[in-house]
Amino acid sequence: MFSQLINLLIKKPIWSLSFLIVVIVTSLLQIQNFSLDASSESLSLDGDNNLELYLDTQKTFGSDESLLISYTSENSLIEPEQLINLRSFRDKLLEINGVDSVISLLDVSLFQSPPLSLIELASDVYTIDNGKADLDYIENEFKTSPLYASNLISKDLKTTALLIPLSADDPTVIIDDEILKKMIFDIRSTMDEYRNDATLFLGGIPMIRNDAISYIKSDLVIFSLAVVLAMSMILTLIFRRIRWVLLPIMISVTGALFMTGLISAIGWKVTVISANFFSLLLVMTLSVTIHLVVRFRELSKNNPDKKTNDLTRETLEQMIKPCAFTTITTIAAFISLTFSNVQPVIDFGLMMSIGISIALILSFMLFAVMMAILPKPKIINHNDHILGVQNLAFITDKFGKSILISLVITICISVFGISKLSVENSFINYFKKSTEIHQGLKLIDEELGGTVPLDIVFDNVANAYWADEGLREEFHEVHKYLDSLDSLGKVLSIDTFMQVLKTSNEGKAPNGFLLVLGKNNMPEFAKSQVLVPHISDETDQIRFVARVKETTDGLNRNELINTINKKLVEEFNFSPESFSFTGSFSLYNNLLQSLFNSQIKTIASVFVIIFIMFMLIFKSASIALIAVLSNTIPSLIILGIMGLFKIPLDIMTITIAAIAIGIGIDNAIHYINRFQDELTKDDDYLMSMYRAHASIGLAIFYTAITVAIGFLVLTLSSFIPSIYFGIFMTVAMLSAVLVNLTLLPKLLIIFKPKMNNIKLIK
User: Fold this and answer.
1) Which of 72, 133, 313, 704 is least buried, going by the fewest C-beta atoms within 10 A?
2) Listed residue (220, 320, 364) closest to 280, CA to CA
3) Pair type for strands 535-536 and 541-548
4) Domain range for residue 483?
């Protein structure tokens, strides 16, 4: 059937090309629907109870989906001129479509300007904007208030925050990405108008999400073009013919674009985890095409009198099985990602599996059609050995013992590095120091108490809180403890409000009667600011909001949560079931910890699946074992380097180990397939290695160098996870080619597995 299809493509190239163009264009037209999703929900665990808790908490206490603008003036913001500038800026923000409210120091309830009694607090609202506040007192209140000091305004009174809530009506409904993008654009335009009055930075989780999407989209376009350019240059140096440059590039780009159109058509959103799928598809399609080109050139050299159509047919018939098997094993590597309980990781695995399958089909079809249309190429005889492939064969032959010793040393060092491996979700470290988002987060951390919220929700305590003095004192101690942690910035809770009331009650804690009276009679505006975010009589819950300082040296997020949890249980005697951690900080931490824990399961499943597939393909347990064990090395090297250099696993690099195995196994299949073919000539394992290096070794080497250079382009990104992804994919490609052109043939020579029954090439 395959031969019939190839014959049809070659005999009817124009009709075949026309059909392919229609199919491809139809898919490309759907790219306009392409979308990225970086919401908290998109990165949550499948069936994660914490996500449900997060949404319930947002509904009960209000959403943390807010934009935050830091506003820094040269002089104190309390000065009348500065208040005028700030008011003008706030009012301008309120004119933006989608901005329903802005919380600033102009709008918040004041309790000591002038000092108010409990009765006065419960009966009226004093703000700067409504004119009831006494400006002679506000400086002291903003410096000392547990509500506003180092939260709404910095200690030196020169930096303040303006908060723009995004989900006022329904906190569980996340604002549409396009609406958010337009709103952020308008906010930044407004900020530009006021930069002469103040230093302004935009922050908040929604902005981080929006900027991450922007960076990823930019990388998809700009760096995809750069990858194509880099690969074109390398192919030019290798093949020295425009045909062998344009043909692989054209096929690769077409395959990647076709898949992009397909996922856009079915509404399959790309997440941060799967953001590099385009680059991966690009290079994996290129890998298939390079193997076809090298084989065609080899056959053309050996059979100069054969017609192009015959050479093309022979090339495709010889390469279909090894390429199909490499595709299957690569799919197996990506399918292993479906063992994760994180939906975006599952989607990434399925997305790549479908994409690789399409890449194989399109590569063979387009290669057949284009070679039938184009005139017969001239094959230039040049010394391919200059690229060092034969030198690798020589090293394998003469220094085999050194290779094995180096292998043991590499494994030991890598295992040691892996023991130091960690996982982090630091938002600030996702962006270069030169970016606005990094600078803004740093300022907010230093002056305004941090950005990323960690919520602790206590159950079955709210109703008792108002009457139980002992319980109030206990929560006061919890607040003091959280406030003492260096990695936490501002901590807000119902105890914050209690401290405000204590100040208004001549330094004495109000009794239960006064508390209930004040709570029931407090104006709704003031209640929404100081009570609603922290206590709910309806759900009988109390919430603590601790903002984590992203810039804290040596911050370990999982360790922080575990430390707080241990303290609450062992020293404050809360049962583990009586409280829960939630908020954006907790969601992302749960995600990454789950991904980290699933790495062992994922990698183990990859090895099992690929081992079984090797057994089916080569019908040899020894060959399967040699190939699989050899190709653990790239993954070990990558994870070892990350551990040794304290580079944490993140939302992008977490999948690299599985990808590296898939890439390495591809090379192994091609090499073993050609090795056994050479072995049938004289049953000489050593000479078979030299001949395999001179043929398929070149294709493997060409592919590795081309793809490695392509991935290195990602190091120019402003998005740090993309940079690391590019670096470690380069390491994966280079280590895989070294392993499969040194260690793999050495093990084949040492153990001499029987290969006479293996026949992938007819």
Assistant:
1) 72
2) 220
3) antiparallel
4) 447-588
pLDDT, position 415: 92
Sequence-distant (6+) residues with CB within 8 A of 586 are 50, 54, 454, 455, 561
- CATH code of the domain covering residue 264: 1.20.1640.10
> From residue 439, how far is each of 287, 446, 550 by CA, in Å?
40, 11, 12
Interhelix angle for 205-218 vs 436-447, to 10°?
A: 160
The residue among 171, 194, 210 that closes a domain is 210
Closest CA to 23 of 297, 305, 254, 248: 254
Helix (H), strand (E) at residue 676 = helix 656-682
pLDDT tens figures, 650-666: 777 777 887 888 778 88
Cα 242 to Cα 181: distance, rounded to the nearest angstrom: 42
- Asked if residue 756 has pLDDT above 70, the reply is no
- 469 and 549 part of one domain: yes
**What are the tens digits of pLDDT across the range 89-139?**
999 999 999 898 899 999 998 888 888 776 777 677 889 998 888 888 999
Q: Answer yes or no: do 570 and 603 share one domain.
A: no
Of 187, 210, 233, which residue sits at a domain end? 210
Same domain, 225 and 367: yes
pLDDT of residue 594: 77
Q: How far apart are the first and last CA of the chain?
A: 15
| Burial class, 1, CB count within 10 angstroms (exposed 0-12 / middle 13-18 / buried 19+) | exposed
- How many Cα atoms sit within 13 Å of 429 on the Cβ side? 18
Query: Using CA atoms, how far apart are residues 149 and 155, in angstroms rounded to an integer?
Result: 6
Overall domain count for the chain: 3
Output the pTM of the full model: 0.81
What pLDDT is attached to residue 379? 64
Q: How confident is the model over 261-289, as a mean pLDDT? A: 83
Pairing status of strand 270-271 against strand 159-165: unpaired
